[in-house]
User: Fold this.
Amino acid sequence: MTQKTYQPKIESLKPAWHLLDAEGISLGRLATKIVYFLSGKYRRDYAPHLDNSDYVVVINCAKIKITGKKLRQKKYFRHSGKLGKLKETKLDLLMRERPEKAVFLAVKNMLAKNKLQKRRLVRLKLFVGEKHSFEDKFRVNPPAGGKS
Assistant:
């Protein structure tokens, strides 16, 4: 007797929305929480070849906690492809100018390096302050028949 593997239909995949507050959470722990929701492995309808990830909205990116000497020692590198064009940016400068970029790079480096990485990163929404433009996604409807 052979068992059949369940294949979810693309139309049935409904992404959920998650709101995370980054205040006081270390960068690595925050990134693992975000990757947990973006990869979608916790869902019952997970399929490795489909993008069934959820949307993640992160607020207070400027208030994350950096432990140890990472602010002075951690460097991010980028290269244009030309000789001698390797550039580096320290985490201290990145946190002062664009703290959401530091969170984005941590999440990007934790995600699987495949064709789904770019699609999953599109579902990540980062905000420096407490205000974000996705308030309507998190509104809870009042109970039916109750006082309004």
Remarks:
- Residues 27 and 103 are 7 Å apart (CA to CA).
- The longest strand covers residues 17-21.
